[in-house]
Each structure stands twice: as structure tokens, then as C-alpha cells.
Amino acid sequence: MTKKLTDTIILRHGAQLKSRIAMPPMLSYSGSAGGYATEDTLKYYSARSQAASLLITEYHYVSETGGPCSQLGYPEQLGIQDDQHIESIRSIAKALKKDGNKAILQIHHGGREAGIRASRGQEVLAPSAIDFPFLNYSLREMTHEEIEEIIKDFGRATKRAIEVGFDGVEIHGANHYLIQQFFSETSNVRQDKWGGTLEKRMNFALEVIKEVKRVMTEYGPEDFILGYRLSPEEVHGNVVGYRFQESSQLIAEVAKYGLDYLSLSLWEGYDSKPEGYDQSYGQLFKEIVGDETMIIVVGSVFDEKAAQDAVDNHTDMIAVGRGSLIDPLFGQKILDGKGETIVSEISPAQVKNTHWTTGLHEAFTRKDSLGLPPLPGHESILALHQGLYDDE
Fold first, then answer.
1. Where is the NADH:flavin oxidoreductase/NADH oxidase N-terminal domain (predicted)?
2. What sign for the dihedral angle of Cα 213, 101, 321, 357?
């Protein structure tokens, strides 16, 4: 079957998407103290209500100990750790859904990455109290009781997402945050239910998805969407947390809970593959999850041609991150048959059309892009940097 970007997609639980294009989760650097959406947040998300047919928010931390994980001095990461944040996420859901596309709330716990807590003199929790050379603060190992409570927090966050009108949730099991930390033998050296063997290192992820699925079944509509995000490997030189062979076993278990989609966080492009394999990650994981679960990959897509190549050869859906940062109408232009008008490079003139938050503007106009992958045309906008947060 020939796949088109403009195909209508019916997900496992019945949700209908207008196309094969998704907007992946991307930190907006826009939250106020405590992780609440601001006017800047809503302007940014409202401008992207037509970026894709499946619109995934930036990560929201589910427990008080789970964040913020954002850059010190910049506007904060958003949260959904208690009922005080309900109106915050309700406003984001409304902004994203206003043009009829599906909105997904990404939920996570930062674990060791919640470094702003350390800057405030608060404890930073992790699976194991390891002294990592790249952290300038210490970690405390979570107790069994704390782990169980955080699992419940993922369920509570899911119920809040249902209450305010989100169409689904994405469990963030990637990018070195808590779920990945439990799965990684570099980060998890426990010798209890939560670590010690590969099977036990899977337990936290599986308990989280079990709790989220329970809440979905009890409180959500039948077509509520369940997504899971994965970093397929954790390899940094000679330091290996896990490889594809291990993550494929994890996903085989995760998939038993009936995912609507599996989202792969890829840094080397949508066609990247594990060492020693002929197939791409997207192709390999599709064989594991089966036909009813959509594969979403992200990586270096800035125009219609690359997006079409991705779905032709490597994935069911393509997530367009930096491309939708440059052109917020990326997905709608393709639906309208105007893919050739997509703006693929940033420029001083295009910055005005991006509706970036102040934090994103400052991040992408820095020489180092604040550690983010630079945008095509990056050099052209360096003169726009204002230095609002550089001294923090």
C-alpha cells in the first residue's frame, strides 16, 4: 500500500487523524514559577494548532519531585503535579485543539535531571544515588514507597488530562528522564523489585503504563490515545546503559498494554539504525509492536519531500520538530497541497512568523542554541539575541 502524508489515520482505540504528520514534544521555555502556562505559552501553542494532525505538548512533570528540568534562569518547564495546574493544561488543550487536530499531553518525571531543585536546596531523587561526573549536585535513592507514589502520580496526571479535554497522553520514557533511568544499568544499580536484572529494570516503566491504562479505562473516552516515547539506545562512547536488543524487549512488554503509538526519539535522523543492523529503528520496532500500533519517528525533516520519504520507508507517521518551529503551518500546508510553500530555513524575517516564546527566541539566537540542535539558517539570526537570561 502506498502511503501518503495526507492519509486519514485511525488509531487503535478509534481516534481519527487527518494526516501522518505529528508535532513532537518540545520544551517551550515559557512556564511561570511552579510550572504554569503563561500568555507566552498559549500564543506559541495556539500558533501551532495546524502544525500537524497529532500535536504533542512539551513534557509536564507529574510529581512535585519531578521537575523542573529546564535551564536555570530561563522560564520554567510546565507541570501537572497537582490540581492547581488543571486550568494551566486546560488552556493548552484548548489552544491546540481549536482547529480540529488531536492534542496529547506528555507526562514525565525528571528524576536526576530535575536540577533546578538542587539549585533551590531541595533533594533530587533518582533510582540510585550515583555520583555522576556531569552533575554538580548529589542524588538520593528513591524508597520503594516513593516509587509507588510516583507511579500513582502518572495516573493522577492522566486523569487531569482527561478532565480538561486532552485527546491522549504520551508517557515519556526517553531522553534520560526517570523511566529511562530505571531501565538503564548505568543509572540503576538497585537490587530489589526495581533493579538488578533486565526484567526488574523494566518494572518501573511497566507499572507506570499499567497505572495510566487503568485510569484511561476508568475515566477516559473509548478513543483516548495512549502513546509511549522511547530512546532506542543509551550509548555514550564506552558507557552503555542499554542497546536496541534490550529496549526491544522492553517494548515487546510495553506493547501488551495496547499502545496507539510508539514514538522514537532519534538524534541521527529518521532513517538511523542500530549498529550492525540493515533496518532502521522505525522498521525494527514496527515488527515488534505490530499493525495496530503506529510508529512515529522524529529526525531532520524540514520539507515535504523528506517527510514523504520517512513514511515511504521507515515509519507510519513522521514527527516534525524543528521544521514546525520554523514554520508553524507545516502540516496544514501539506494538507492544502501547498507543501512547496513550507519555509525550511530560519531567517530574521521568518522569526516574526514563528510565534516563539521569549525563552525559545533567546535559546535559538544563542551561538550554542542552548544545547539544542541548531536550525537551518541559524547564523542569520544570531544578531537578534538579547541576552535576557545569559547572566542567570
1. 15-336
2. negative
- For residues 27 and 77, the answer to whether their CB atoms sit within 8 Å is yes
Clarify whether residues 234 and 379 are in a common domain: no
Strand, coil or helix: 256:
helix
Give the domain range for residue 354. Answer: 345-392
Residue 231 lies in a domain: yes
Q: Is 177 a catalytic residue?
A: yes
Nearest one of 199, 217, 207 to 178, comparing CA atoms: 207
Instruction: Give the single-character DSSP code of 66.
Output: G
Instruction: Specify the pTM.
Output: 0.97
Can you spell out the DSSP letters for 192-235? Answer: BTTBSSHHHHHHHHHHHHHHHHHHHHHHS-TT-EEEEEE-S-EE
8 A C-beta contact, residue 106 and residue 169: yes
Is beta strand 234-236 parallel, antiparallel or unpaired with respect to 239-242?
antiparallel
- Tens of pLDDT, residue by residue over 15-70, are 999 999 999 999 999 999 999 999 999 999 999 999 999 999 999 999 999 999 99
Selected catalytic residue, list 177, 228, 270, 281: 177
Q: Spell out the SS3 assignment of 102-148.
A: EEEEEEECCHHHCHHHHHCCCCCEECCCCCCCCCCCCCEECCHHHHH
